[in-house]
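for the writeup, i need someone to sanity check this before i put it in the appendix. the sequnce is what the collaborator sent (i think, or maybe the updated version? ugh). structure was predicted straight from it, no edits. if anything looks off just tell me and ill rerun, i have time this weekend
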Amino acid sequence: MDYLIVRSIDGAFEEILTSVNYDSFSYSYERNTSRTISFSIRRTEQNAFSFELLENEATVIYQGQQFVVKKCTPKVVGAVFSKEITAHHISYTIQDHMQYAVQDGEKTYSLQSVLEFALNGNELGFSFQVIGSFGMAKLENLGDKNGLELINLCVDSFGAIFFADNKKLLFYDEANWYRRTEKQLRYLYNTEDVTVDVNTDTLKTYIKCYGKQKDEPDKYSGDNKYTAVVTYMSPNAEKYGKRMAAAKSNDKITTTKELLEFAKGELMDVPDTSLTLTYRGDEPVSERDIWYFIHEPMGFETEVHVTRIKSPHPWSLKPQEIGFSNTRRDMVRLQSQMAKRVTTAVSEAAKSTERIRSISRTAAEAYDSRILTEVVGEVH
């Protein structure tokens, strides 16, 4: 349902909101970071009751999802009384649950076990589901954090993608989260205002990984506890230097060869590359989409994964603003295309320079020949 519904703080009343400025409405999503709606509404005689219900900590329901009002700014301009609203997805209220218990020492955990511990005893009605396959992670002194901090820990330690269906918290691996759409984003066809951002904040070139523990790990110490241990230095260390990533482990791996491939896949050894563009097509872009991006002037032709969306209300005619960030494999491809583009430009510039030099040499030779002819003519 595209209507906005307000639910009072105590849950006693629900009303459809009217006189909403739908041109001001936006749904904003950033992967593993935020999910909000914002809009403005003016007070009328017809919506006076629902307008009063709309306050901090009230719930706004949009397309079946609950958003909790965190910012309510009343305004009076002349005879017009309005409110500007910002509401966060209800899943982020997990921060109101605290896990005071602590698992002392460094231990190896699965994503499932961390979440069971994190949500144990929560009285807010949250549940969770893990969708996909994840490795193990070494964590120290797990606990004494609120629910949101523990979710962020899961995202960082296991590489999970966090999304939620109201209070059901879902954790996906990338293979199960993203879906190929077989649709294209093409410059001057359905996109404009394309910006490419490249940063090296998360770039790492060195990693240590552990395989499955031996059957009786207590009899061993250090690296000897594991059936396989590898360290991997990326070739990109020659360019960026040795940048050490946090250690990773996978209890399903028992051979050095397989663990080395795992290590290579876990290392983010290229700059993080993201795209931001305005999308003017007819088919809406969703949080789980993979599209094919073609931009001839920039020389891009690659798959891109949605990481950010700013969507207008369906009743508005405004375009979506979309942000994409490639997977490691696709980032390498995009970086290669960027490098190739630069190399081609440099090569073309060099060719142009050589052509200019050649023309200059020809002109100089012709000029010298003219002077020689004139001089010879004078002598003759």
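The longest strand covers residues 65-77. The domain at 4-91 is CATH 2.40.30 (Elongation Factor Tu (Ef-tu); domain 3).
thx in advance!!
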